[in-house]
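Pilot study result, target chain (279 residues):
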Amino acid sequence: MTTDTDWKLTRTFTSTSGDVRWDRLGEPGRPPVVLLHGTPFSSYVWRAVARSLMRDHEVFVWDMPGYGTSEKAEGQDVSLAAQGRVFTELLDHWGLAEPLVVAHDFGGAVALRGHLLHGAPYRALALVDPVALAPWGSPFFRLVGEHADVFERLPTALHAALVREYVTSASGPGLRPAVLERLVEPWLDGSGQAAFYRQIAQADQRYTDEIQGRYGDIGIPTLVCWGEDDTWIPVAKGRELAGLVPGARFEPIAGAGHLVQEDAPAELTAALIAFLQQL
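Predicted structure:
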């Protein structure tokens, strides 16, 4: 995995929610870092950060069930509850006792659930524009969730246009065409179209409501990074979240929207490296 075009996950783990594609970068034995993507994305968004962190860490990347190159199947459970369970299964499969965990968007909720509900021990936690505080979900997101069966039957061209527009809105300055196409590609074939609406239909706020009152129990070093131009989840939510986690540091990222990894990869990587070096 050396360029944008050849980013491929070469390993497979069979989880309770289907086959999960994953990979590792860097030399074994170095401090482990696990990267969690959000929705509707995949591990691809972490490519620049992963390649920087691998100089001093062993970096684990994966596509959640129902996302990217992992299995997408009718009736598949891709809820936050399922993803949190799968994450703990993966940590056990990898033999990681206390990894450094870096999580974006929906992946932030997965990491929080893994730690607070499943007892997964982390060395430290970095959250990047995470889904963590109610209320969340844009009007579009809620509309699709309520009528997923209707949207699933959209003509292919209309579905593709909708997905491209939606993914584009996650970026502040805008995405390069090649990057946009790579991000939407998993959602454009038959199984991908159904999977796109399935993951929205199962995105229930009750899964973060279950843990929101426990953020004060987090006792590990925590960093909260946030794109200042995030239109999906306002930066004020980042400050609020950092205030709820004891000792958490808040790091705003100027010029970045919700998809910070694409909008400001150098700035985000610098913040993460500085955080990890202080541990």
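One observation from the pilot: The chain has one domain: 12-277. A full batch analysis is planned for the follow-on phase.
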